[in-house]
Amino acid sequence: MTAPPCAARPGDCRYGTAPELVLDTGNHHMPQVEIWRCTACGHGVTRPAMADVSPLYAGRESDDYLARDSGWIQSLKRIATRRLARRLIAFAPAPPRRIADFGTGNGMLARALADAAGPDATVHALDFFDDPPGPLDPVRYASFAAAAPLHGTMDLVTCFHVLEHDDDSAAMLARVLAFVRPGGTLVIEVPNVDCVWNPWFGKACANWYAPFHRVHFTRASLRALLVRQGLEIVAEQDICGPTFALSLAQWLAVRPNGLLFALALGLRPLQWVAERLTRRPSALRIIARRPG
């Protein structure tokens, strides 16, 4: 394999002679992929490379858009997302008046940010598509292609489980960072390749999510990527995410459903304790600030 740049040790990539995993994806764009890990820092990459990942998301048919969720699951997620939005707004040094959610998906986080920020704030939802995923009022939707006028104007930019979806992490981060004004705040969250559940579920662990996850971050590689862009790291957080429920579905070879969601919800205290004790969470979050 031609070694891609290693996020934590650029110029010193050590990917070895064999992949860590070979995964059958069931996706016609890329039915089989290999996961390679750098032996220097653990950072992972999915191969073969994809110069353009947009075909994977055509029609918003991938699981990223959560269209499968039933009504009661959506209600619980809305409650959790509203709580999250209030915490995200508190990361900014002053109440943010211009907010963007980069890679908004189904728009749930953008709507929650608009509710939490209040009527004096303007929230923009940004994604691949020309049209929004559904009604987003009062959120303003824009495609990436049409969003250039917003560059350098945002007090707060959120980017949740997006950075891992592109082969070129540095270029993707630069696209996100373009929206953050000097002195503005960026909140990035990605899956953790060193999640405690990876050995338990193996190929079925949802954190692999092939072929959609193109890179697989460690603490070191995510931190190094942001620092190389000149960002000031304000805080790092371990996040207990939905890996358990999605991995159970993969392991059982069934679609995610309400029963598995309820089971994972009941086991969530166990998941949280295991991730806390091992310091191997299912996701990593970094709050960073662009120098003024």
UniProtKB/TrEMBL annotation:
InterPro entries: SAM-dependent_MTases_sf
A Gene Ontology biological process term: methylation
Assigned keywords, A-Z: Methyltransferase, Transferase
UniProt-listed Gene3D superfamilies: Vaccinia Virus protein VP39
A Pfam family that the UniProt record links to this protein: Methyltransf_23
Superkingdom of this protein's organism: Bacteria
GO molecular function: methyltransferase activity
Protein name: Class I SAM-dependent methyltransferase
Taxonomic lineage of the native organism: Bacteria, Pseudomonadati, Pseudomonadota, Alphaproteobacteria, Sphingomonadales
